[in-house]
Design a protein that fits this description.
Layout lengths: L2 E5 L5 H10 L3 E5 L8 H5 L2 E3 L6 H11 L3 E4 L3 H14 L7 H8 L1 H10 L16 H5 L5 E5 L9 E3 L2 H14 L5 E5 L3 E11 L2 E12 L8 E5 L5 H19 L4 E10 L4 E7 L11 H5 L3 H9 L20 E8 L4 E7 L1 H4 L5 E4 L7 E2 L4 E9 L2 H14 L1 E4 L12 H10 L6
Parallel strand pairs: 1-2, 1-4, 2-3
Antiparallel strand pairs: 5-6, 5-7, 8-9, 8-11, 9-10, 10-13, 11-12, 13-17, 14-16, 14-18, 15-17
């Protein structure tokens, strides 16, 4: 009997378990959470109350129970534990420690990009002493970020030396690495490009625009959407270098994504990469968009089912007519969740699904996504109608009864982008 162990309860853990069960695989979920707080445990065949970092206990139980595959959802820590446990058990893992290093270490990733001639923002060396000579060499504004954190954690935007000193201290207080990235601040639109991989072949399948609600912080991207222009420019100007970088990183199987920005100087720059499922779950819409199912792809690999380049979807050439997004529900303030309303109703809308790890009674910080809504629509008008209905139906209130989520409402910009795009033929 095939047995799949899911490490942790994170975004898309539940969906991986459900797919594995549909294929006749016996599923187990392990972490410290009680079942009522774990959507994955509620649908699995069994669960363990073993912390995902306790590899010795997990290895022993896996051998005793005859576990044949190990996976995780959207969790960097659990992906590292998955790789380590698979190595101990001799089980397949699409992500290797060597390739994962570049997803975790932004400084080494930028160094590799330079080695292959891929464009990245100029950066500056700062020692622990932060000498006057080092600070005088910096041309402001700059971005400061830890090399090993994601989801905007530890990032600061600096316009003078004092802000830079404070930003470096802040980044180092959160990071486990002594290295800090200090780079020229880019000004422009941001995208990320999504890739499917098999047997060393790399296929770009979707360019996603990252859209913030006007008036909010520019890095609070509410929508990651395939409604975008510039597909042709990206594919011609920078995608060949991105794919060269991914090959040098060692990405051979699974999925990957790379963030990029079109700066005000009209050049594309690579920002960072990910070798895991995305936190904004844009991939949930790809089966409808381009017939590629990331969960099925990764789960099959973990089970020992190998795909070849012939199984990859065609590379994207133009924008898609179908409209999709991951709609991240960012918080405008910190607090404690009193109630989450309307999410069961929006899941009745065709093409709409909701993903969250939060429950009533839990605390949350400012500028944190409390969930993601996946949307698939026939065209831009249908897409805007669905977003409007979602905005009017859902709410997440704090203890004072205030709705704390930031809603995306810039529908006119979406329409203009969609109308101007060159579409892929149906």
């Amino acid at each position: 009997m095939e047995k799949l162990l899911m490490l942790g309860t994170s975004l898309q853990s539940k969906e991986i378990v459900e797919y594995a069960k549909s294929q006749g695989v016996y599923t187990i979920v392990t972490d410290y959470l009680p079942p009522e707080q774990s959507r994955a445990k509620l649908v699995s065949d069994a669960y363990w109350m073993v912390n995902t970092g306790d590899l010795d206990t997990l290895e022993a139980k896996c051998r005793e129970e005859g576990v044949t595959a190990v996976m995780c959802g959207v969790s960097e820590f659990n992906l590292e534990m998955t790789m380590a446990l698979c190595k101990r058990l001799g089980l397949p893992s699409y992500c290797t420690p060597e390739a994962w290093h570049y997803s975790r270490d932004k400084a080494d990733f930028k160094k590799l990009c330079r080695e292959v001639g891929a464009p990245v923002a100029e950066d500056y060396f700062l020692s622990d002493k932060l000498t006057d000579e080092e600070l005088d060499a910096v041309r402001f504004p700059v971005v400061v970020k830890p090399v090993d954190l994601s989801c905007n954690r530890g990032i600061s935007y600096c316009y003078d030396k004092q802000q830079l000193r404070e930003a470096v201290r802040y980044a180092r207080s959160l990071s486990k690495s002594p290295k800090i990235v200090v780079e020229r601040m880019l000004h422009g639109r941001e995208w990320y490009s999504y890739y499917a991989l098999a047997d060393g072949e790399i296929r770009q399948i979707c360019l996603n625009a990252m859209e913030a609600e006007p008036g909010q912080l520019k890095n609070l991207y509410s929508l990651s959407t395939n409604i975008t222009g510039n597909v042709e420019r990206v594919m011609a100007e920078i995608n060949p270098k991105i794919e060269e970088v991914l090959r040098r990183v060692g990405c051979r199987e699974g999925i990957a994504w790379v963030q990029l920005m079109l700066d005000e100087d009209d050049h594309f720059y690579i920002i960072e990469m990910g070798y895991r499922l995305p936190g904004d779950v844009t991939d949930a819409a790809y089966p409808a968009l381009c017939s590629f199912d990331s969960i099925r792809w990764l789960t099959d690999f973990a089970r020992g089912i190998r795909h070849t380049a012939a199984d990859l979807p065609p590379a994207q050439e133009h924008a898609y007519r179908l409209c999709t997004c991951g709609y991240s529900l960012w918080t405008r303030k910190s607090g404690v969740i009193r109630e989450m309303k309307g999410f069961d109703k929006i899941c009745c809308i065709p093409g709409v699904r909701f993903y969250t790890l939060y429950h009533a009674g839990e605390s949350f910080p400012a500028h944190m996504p409390l969930g993601v809504v996946s949307v698939v629509a026939e065209d831009c008008e249908d897409f805007c109608r669905k977003l409007k209905e979602i905005n009017e139906t859902i709410s997440i209130t704090d203890e004072s009864g205030e709705d704390v989520i930031i809603r995306y409402t810039d529908f006119d910009s979406l329409r203009k982008t969609y109308e101007a795009a060159q579409w892929t033929e149906d």
